[in-house]
What we know:
This protein is an all-alpha fold. It is built from 1 helix and no strands. The protein has one helix at residues 11-48. The chain is rod-shaped and about 70 Å long. The termini are far apart. The relative contact order is 0.07.
Amino acid sequence: MGGLDLSFFSWETISKFVQKGFHSSIELTAVATVGGILLGTVLALMRLSGVKLL
Length: 54
């Protein structure tokens, strides 16, 4: 059985895109985590308070 011909694949070219994508994924995860914690905390405090905003 023949394998895949990966001679067209150049890791030197692709590695920059992989690193940028990995960095963007980590950054987006961190921002979403902090945003979710802050939004959840605000909503929980609003629920515990007796003030009806709407």
